[in-house]
């Protein structure tokens, strides 16, 4: 379960922002998690709550925005949405896809007090 380490990184980002922008409490953390990121949103929710204890983010609400997997199909020259790697192009059936989005996980915004 690498989600615990990811949540520790999220808390690190939040604490660094708190130092840089001088706020003392976080009310909400909004994450974007791509469909191809290999991150389990339910595990992130569980781990975030555990890792946030005794930090500036304790009690903060965690919002997760799921972003789709996007790939460029070299056969039909289109950007297409995919649910997982190595699946064929939903438009033409080709496997000549290059992933262009949906691999990321990032802190999208913070709601602070």
Quick recap:
Helix content is 27%, strand content 35%. It is built from 2 helices and 6 strands.
Throw out a few tags for this protein.
three-stranded mixed β-sheet; 2 helices; 113 residues
Explain what the structure shows.
It is a single chain. The chain starts with a helix and ends with a strand. Strand 1 (26-34), helix 2 (41-51) and strand 2 form a beta-alpha-beta unit. Helix 1 crosses helix 2 (41-51). The protein is elongated and about 50 Å long. Helices cover 27% and strands 35% of the residues. The chain has helices spanning 3-21, 41-51; strands spanning 26-34, 61-67, 69-73, 78-82, 97-101, 105-112. It is α+β, with helices and mostly antiparallel strands and 113 residues long. A three-stranded mixed β-sheet has the order 2-1-6, with helices on one face. The chain has two helices and six strands.
Question: What secondary-structure arrangement, pairings included, does this model have?
Answer:
Layout: H1 3-21, E1 26-34, H2 41-51, E2 61-67, E3 69-73, E4 78-82, E5 97-101, E6 105-112
Parallel strand pairs: 1-2
Antiparallel strand pairs: 1-6, 3-4, 3-5
Helix pairs in contact: 1-2
Which structural class should the secondary elements be placed in? alpha+beta
Residue share in helices?
Answer: 25-40%
Beta-strand residue fraction: 25-35%
- DSSP helical segment count: 2
Q: What would the average pLDDT be, to the nearest integer?
A: 96
Main sheet specs? 3 strands, mixed
Low-confidence stretches: none
Outline: elongated
Could you tell me the radius of gyration in angstroms?
A: 17 Å
